[in-house]
Structures are given as C-alpha cells and as structure tokens.
Amino acid sequence: MSTPHSQIAAAFLRRKAAWSPLEAGLWGLALAAAFLFPSQQLLLSEIAILALFALSLDLIVGYAGILSLGHAAFFGIGAYTAGLFSLHVSAEPLAGLAASAVVAGLLGLATSFLVLRGSDLTRLMTTFGVSMLLAEGANQAAWLTGGADGLSGILLGPIAGTFDFDLWGRTGYLYSLAVLFILLLVARRIVHSPFGLSLKAIKRNSRRAAMLGIAPNRRIVVIYTISALYAGMAGALLTQTTSFVSPDVLAFHRSADVLLVLVLGGVGYLYGGIIGAVIFTLLRAWLSVVTPQYWMFWIGLILVALVVIGRDRLDPARAIALVRSRLLGRPAAKPVPLSEDGR
Amino acid sequence: MLTILFDGIAYGMLLFVLACGLAVTLGLMNFVNLAHGAFAMAGGYVTVVMMNRYGLSFYWCLPAAFLAAALLGAALEVTLYRRLYAAPHLDQVLFSIGLVFMAVAGIDYFMGGQQQLISLPPELSGRFSLFGVGIGRYRLFIIILCALLTIALQLTLTRTRIGSQLRAAVDDGRVARGLGINVSRIFVLTFALGSGLAGLGGALGVELLGLDPNFPLKYLIYFMIVVTIGGTSSITGPFLAALLLGVADVAGKYYLPSLGAFIIYAVMIAFLILRPHGLFTREGGK
Amino acid sequence: MTPALETQMLVKRFGGLIVTNEVSLSVRPGARHALIGPNGAGKTTLINLLTGALTPSGGRILLSGEDITATTPFERVRRGIARTFQINQLFNDLTPLESVMLAVGERLGHGNRLFRPLAADRAVSEEAAALLERFRLADVMCLPTRDLPYGKQRLLEIALAIALEPKVLLLDEPAAGVPEEDRHEVLAIVRALPADVTVLLIEHDMDLVFSFADRISVLAAGRLFAEGTVEEISGDPEVKAIYLGDAA
C-alpha cells in the first residue's frame, strides 16, 4: 500500500542515514596510516583513543545537550579497570576492554541521575564533582591503584590469543582503530534510530518533546550510560596500548581537553571527535616541540579564539556539508546550535 | 576545637571574598566564568612581586592587588567577556577554560612553577591566646578585614543606586537601557569589582592557601561550591556557604586527614542533588 | 455520560495572584468546545494546567473519569491529551517528516528502539507520510521545518498533535498569525478533524468560534463566567459586555 509520498519519505530517510564517500575515504586513510607511517604508530593510537573519548562526549553533548566538565571520570575508571583486570584477572585485552566497559557503564548509570535535574550549571558542577571525587579516590586508595605513582607492570597477552602487541605499536593502533570503528558504527545506528531522533527532540525543545509523550529522563539515562561505556573503553585502550595507568587519566585537564577536541571537530555529527582528535594531537605534538612545557598556553589561546571568532564559522561539519553538497549536489545542512531551549 | 572553628571562619571569610565576584557573574549575569580564580591568582602574584622583588610593605600590596585584578577584569570584560554574555554555556565554558589554561601556562613561564612564599609583617604573624583559645594574628586580621568588606559590599548592593541598577540591568537589559541605565558600564564596573575582590582575596590568601600556577584550577571547585550552595538571591547565601565550607574543610583536614578533599566533593554533590537551587534560596520557579 | 475532560474546582495561584479561580469545566466526548475570554482571562494557564506544564494549587483534573491531576505531562499525552501551541513550538532543524515520525513512533512505543534505523520503520514512515499528505504538507516534508512558510508550520503544529491520536485535543489559537490567504487551509483542517476526537478550542477569532463550536465557555478573570450553546452565548448581553465589547 505504498503511496508515492511514502516512497519519497523512505528514500529520504535512507539517504540521510547512508554512508557518504567522504566517510569511507576517512576510514581508508586511517587504515592506510598503519602502513604509511610505521614510526608514528603510538601517535596514531593516541589519536584513535582520543577520538573515541570525544565520540563518547559527542553522544551526550551533541545529541542530548548535556554539558559535562567531568567526562574523564568514565575514561579514568575504564583505564584503571583495564589495568587492574590485566594484573589480577586476565591478560587478554578484549576481556579487559569488556570489563572496563561494564564498570564505566555502571558508573554512568549510577551518576546519570545526577544530570537529570537542574540547569547547565548544576550539571557542570555535578559532573565535575564526580570526576574530582574519583581522582581523589584513586589518589588515596594507594593499595589498589598505586596512588600517585600509578599502576605499572601491566603485561598484556595477545589480543584474542592471536595478535601480539609489537614494539612499534602497530597492533596497538589497529586494535584501537578497530574498536573505534565498531563503536562508531554502533553510535551511527543509535543516532539514526527512533531513539536518536527522540534525543534530538529533547535537546532542541524538551517542553515540546514532553508534549509528544516523550519521557525525557529515561532517554537521558540510557544515552548517558552508553556514553560512559564508550569513554570507559577509550580509557581501557589507553591502558592497554601504553601498559601504564596513573591518576592523570582522571585529571581535570582531560575533561577540558576532550571538550576542546569535540568542539574543534564540531559537535553533533559523530565525526567531530575524530577530526578534532587528529587536529588536537598533531597540534599538541607540534606545539610541545616548539614550546615544551607551555603548550597549555596555546591550547588556551585556541579555545579563546575558537569561541570569540565563533564556533559555527569554523565548524568542520559545515565545511564537510559544503564539500558534500558540491560533490553530490545535495543541499548543505545548516549547523545545529547547541540548544534552542530558552534556558 | 575552638581554634579549628576560628581558623575555619577565617578560611571561610577569605573564600567569600574570593568567590563573591563569581556569585555575581555566575549567579546574576548567568555567565559560567571558570576563569574567576585567575583574577585571584593575579592579585596573589602582584603581592609576591611587590614584596619579594621590590620590598614594598604588605599593606600597600593589598590595594595594589585589588586594583591590578580589577583593571585586568575590566580590560577583559570590555574586549572579550562582553561578547559572550548571550552565548551558549558551552561557549562560555570553553572560553573561560581557555583563559585559565593561558593564565596557568603564562604564570609558569614568567614566575616558575614553585610555591610562592611571602613573609608577613611581624605584627601579623604568630598567635596569642585568648581565654585558652589559640588565635592566629593573621587570621584575626583576615576576619576583621573580610567582615568589613562584606558589610561594605552589602551596603553597596542594597543602599546605593549601583545595586538597584545592576539588578535592573540583569533582569532585563532592554528595559534598563530604556530607563537610561548604562548597562554596559554597570557590567564593566561589576565585573571589575568582582575581579578586584578576587585579586584582594588572592593577595590575602598567599599565606593561607598557598600560591602556584595551578591556583585557579585548585580552588575553582571551592568558588563554585560557594556560589551554587549559597545561591544567588543575596550575598548572605554565599557568605554563609563560604563560612560553612571553610569550617567543614578545616575540620575535615584536621580530624580526617586521610580523606582529604573527598568530603568536600561528596558534600557538594549531595547538596546539588538535594537542593539544586542552593541551600539558602527559597524554592523559586520550577 | 462521563465527560471526556473535566476539571473540578481547579485553582492556580502565583504568589498572591489567583489566575485560575475554582474552574469547573466539563467537556463531553466528541464535543467541539470553545473556550473564549478576554486577554489575561487565564486561558493559556488553564491549558498549561490541563497538560501538566503547571501544577494546580487546588482542584482535580479528570480524563474520561480518571484522575490525572498528579501525572506528568508525557504521561497525560500517553493517556490521550494532546495540544498545539499558540506560538509554534517546532523542531526547526528537523524535517516535518521526522517530526511527525517522532510523534507516531512515540505513540507506538518505538522511541526506545536504539538500533533499528528510522528508515526501516516502514509502518511509522508510511503513516507519517499519509498524515502529512492529509495536512497538505507532503511536498515540503523533507525540508527543514524552519524553511516552511508560517501557515505550513501552523499546519505541522496541528499534525504533530493529531499524530498522537489523542482522545482530547487542545487547540490554542490554531489560526493565530496565519496570513489571510493561508487561513482557509488551516480552518479547513481544523473543521475536518476526526469526529471522535474531543476538541477544546481556545480562540480569539469569533467567526471561527461560532462556525466551529457546538458549545462555548467564557472565562473572565480566572473564573468560568458563562457556558452554553453558540446561540445562548452570542445572545448573552453580559458576555457581550465583558468580551465582545472588548474585542470590537
């Protein structure tokens, strides 16, 4: 009983969720990098991990409109879980990754109730507070976490019993890239589902969303938990590729950096985290050569400039949409403001 | 016991002076300014440089720290902050984190990363005993000074035209402008005053809180607690919150040193869950 | 017969100000009921109380005889109350298709589906497309909502509410702000609403009220001032004095 209009509708929806050649190209490039730059595999792993961390933040900031100043809490707990898991349970990385995901997800579920109520400000404070609480805890519980010295002596077995970590870090990079790719596929699926659509509605106008029968709280709990799970896996990857965890994984600057990464790449289209991670990591590598120790200053300057000049004017998402429209003759999407809610 | 209470009060009053500027920008102007601590740090370093490098008296440093931070605040308000009053909170967060990072790295570059020390004038150092309670002279000085400042601030906000103009400007800028109030001038003045007080607090705090390039990040959480728990409907709320926080922190560090800052964060989260609109505000709106 | 929607002694105070004063309103199933009153009479407050956006200070709200006074806004939507807004509350960067699919999907309980692509939800997209066609929005359904002309946006406002298949529909000035040339389109849609849907219309436009409603309640200063058929109300000199005189 398909009418022409419903066919148009279905075609439109399919097209919106379809893969673009640009996306495929990006992944091809990422894979090629494993073989093109044999001496830079550690840097590449760093990018992939940061990209995953920023992707997890994008799920809550870009899609649900929840600001967080403490996303490092989930990254850090994932990193510690992976370290402790490999020391005490099993050296198999995939099992450690799964354990980190579960623990971080549980923490996300438990703390999601803190971000349901209140304004942006109380959300900033509670997320910040939770991460500081964890950082303080990791520092104090030296018997478990090694305190300020961190956990060392982490030895990992081959991934799935087959792929050994090599000295140059190529296995580590391909492993991180594979995890990032799979999790991006899942995120893509979520964003283009009815659930993802309802999140967009809640973010844009929660009052109206409620008038469509959407109970916002449950949706926020679910996406916040998924986001925490993603961040936890990013943390686990960091531990597994560097064989080391220190309280630095929970530090405030990590929460701030990941916000910057996401904003550099653009909020709310999933690839912002990846693009931002590339820019940020290369920039940091370059700046710390030029002015070691003081690269924080330049990061700060970039943040200020980014905001003062205007995020949407520099938004890669818009640039990509423009390129895409040129290439494929489709209308360019307008950038999405962070929140259309009055307050 | 009473000594701890006394120290806690001194600490709390200092926190109030440090944070009250944030209560205005965050509370009244609804601007998430995470860089507030940078102004306090500026005041602290002005003091350190004046005393240690030029040998000037501590008493001269206090007004100088106030002025320097206030000027810095005014300059930044006019050039940068002003553009972002209406911006989304995410932008404000990014912008002010950027400022903090620049301040931290900049101070590290010019002053080095070590703790800064000053030697207080002799009449302010040491303790004396009053009815068996050990009282630090410097802490007493802080309590008196901060109490005077608080009273002056309260009077300024409630009794003068500046106070009512500020409220009008914050409530509805357009209407205020229609009434002939120079909104942007009010905002600069307010911002400068808040930054100046933070700078003064920073100068007073060198001895009590310590001073190193990480100061703005280390104490950010304290300032934000004062503002969020105290609420923003008056300055009495943040004042009481600061006192409470000061006493709790000092007592916590004395009795339960192993827990460290744990308690503060836990208490803050608990408060935010139970009273998301602040401890001392009546339930307003939704 | 149980009223579709009923309020009993409903009161709303803001501080000392009483905005809704002991309003007892009864709307029978399938009614075309209009609520009129001068500006500031408390019409929008009443709608906000009915939908749960505001909590009443006293009194009860019943939907088909069930007490819904303490339920959340989205719970009320699930039980069958839908509303439109006097000022468009649309998702500006979503397309009308997505917006209506959202409403249809929520009604069918698909909103919790995390991993199923929207495009695969043919039942929902077909229903949405059919509804949009009925509302003459099919040709613009794939454009961002903000690019639609105002009249079309008003139609989408109503379509979103209808997509929820409500028992009771609250229409808050559906034709407000619509340019004269598009007006008839909106009015035609309003008149063609399904007969089994109970409609409570809040409206300023007397022509629309008199041509549409079978029963009229008059609200003045927060109180229910009069109620009756179109003839009774239009002939009531007191109503004329407080309302029609004021509007003229």
UniProtKB/TrEMBL annotation, chain A:
<keyword id="KW-0472">Membrane</keyword>
<keyword id="KW-1133">Transmembrane helix</keyword>
<dbReference type="GO" id="GO:0005886">
    <property type="term" value="C:plasma membrane"/>
</dbReference>
<keyword id="KW-0812">Transmembrane</keyword>
<feature type="transmembrane region" description="Helical">
    <location>
        <begin position="258"/>
        <end position="282"/>
    </location>
</feature>
<feature type="transmembrane region" description="Helical">
    <location>
        <begin position="294"/>
        <end position="310"/>
    </location>
</feature>
<dbReference type="Pfam" id="PF02653">
    <property type="entry name" value="BPD_transp_2"/>
</dbReference>
<protein>
    <submittedName>
        <fullName>Branched-chain amino acid ABC transporter permease</fullName>
    </submittedName>
</protein>
<feature type="transmembrane region" description="Helical">
    <location>
        <begin position="97"/>
        <end position="116"/>
    </location>
</feature>
<feature type="transmembrane region" description="Helical">
    <location>
        <begin position="173"/>
        <end position="199"/>
    </location>
</feature>
<dbReference type="InterPro" id="IPR001851">
    <property type="entry name" value="ABC_transp_permease"/>
</dbReference>
<dbReference type="GO" id="GO:0015658">
    <property type="term" value="F:branched-chain amino acid transmembrane transporter activity"/>
</dbReference>
<dbReference type="InterPro" id="IPR043428">
    <property type="entry name" value="LivM-like"/>
</dbReference>
<feature type="transmembrane region" description="Helical">
    <location>
        <begin position="220"/>
        <end position="238"/>
    </location>
</feature>
<feature type="transmembrane region" description="Helical">
    <location>
        <begin position="141"/>
        <end position="161"/>
    </location>
</feature>
Automatic annotation (TrEMBL), chain B:
<feature type="transmembrane region" description="Helical">
    <location>
        <begin position="31"/>
        <end position="51"/>
    </location>
</feature>
<protein>
    <submittedName>
        <fullName>Branched-chain amino acid ABC transporter permease</fullName>
    </submittedName>
</protein>
<dbReference type="InterPro" id="IPR052157">
    <property type="entry name" value="BCAA_transport_permease"/>
</dbReference>
<keyword id="KW-1133">Transmembrane helix</keyword>
<feature type="transmembrane region" description="Helical">
    <location>
        <begin position="254"/>
        <end position="274"/>
    </location>
</feature>
<dbReference type="Pfam" id="PF02653">
    <property type="entry name" value="BPD_transp_2"/>
</dbReference>
<dbReference type="GO" id="GO:0005886">
    <property type="term" value="C:plasma membrane"/>
</dbReference>
<feature type="transmembrane region" description="Helical">
    <location>
        <begin position="6"/>
        <end position="24"/>
    </location>
</feature>
<dbReference type="InterPro" id="IPR001851">
    <property type="entry name" value="ABC_transp_permease"/>
</dbReference>
<dbReference type="GO" id="GO:0006865">
    <property type="term" value="P:amino acid transport"/>
</dbReference>
<keyword id="KW-1003">Cell membrane</keyword>
<keyword id="KW-0472">Membrane</keyword>
<dbReference type="GO" id="GO:0022857">
    <property type="term" value="F:transmembrane transporter activity"/>
</dbReference>
<keyword id="KW-0029">Amino-acid transport</keyword>
<comment type="similarity">
    <text>Belongs to the binding-protein-dependent transport system permease family. LivHM subfamily.</text>
</comment>
UniProtKB/TrEMBL annotation, chain C:
<dbReference type="InterPro" id="IPR032823">
    <property type="entry name" value="BCA_ABC_TP_C"/>
</dbReference>
<feature type="domain" description="ABC transporter">
    <location>
        <begin position="5"/>
        <end position="246"/>
    </location>
</feature>
<dbReference type="GO" id="GO:0016887">
    <property type="term" value="F:ATP hydrolysis activity"/>
</dbReference>
<dbReference type="GO" id="GO:0005886">
    <property type="term" value="C:plasma membrane"/>
</dbReference>
<protein>
    <submittedName>
        <fullName>ABC transporter ATP-binding protein</fullName>
    </submittedName>
</protein>
<keyword id="KW-0813">Transport</keyword>
<dbReference type="Pfam" id="PF00005">
    <property type="entry name" value="ABC_tran"/>
</dbReference>
<dbReference type="Pfam" id="PF12399">
    <property type="entry name" value="BCA_ABC_TP_C"/>
</dbReference>
<keyword id="KW-0547">Nucleotide-binding</keyword>
<dbReference type="InterPro" id="IPR051120">
    <property type="entry name" value="ABC_AA/LPS_Transport"/>
</dbReference>
<dbReference type="InterPro" id="IPR003439">
    <property type="entry name" value="ABC_transporter-like_ATP-bd"/>
</dbReference>
<dbReference type="InterPro" id="IPR027417">
    <property type="entry name" value="P-loop_NTPase"/>
</dbReference>
<dbReference type="GO" id="GO:0005524">
    <property type="term" value="F:ATP binding"/>
</dbReference>
<dbReference type="InterPro" id="IPR003593">
    <property type="entry name" value="AAA+_ATPase"/>
</dbReference>
<keyword id="KW-0067">ATP-binding</keyword>
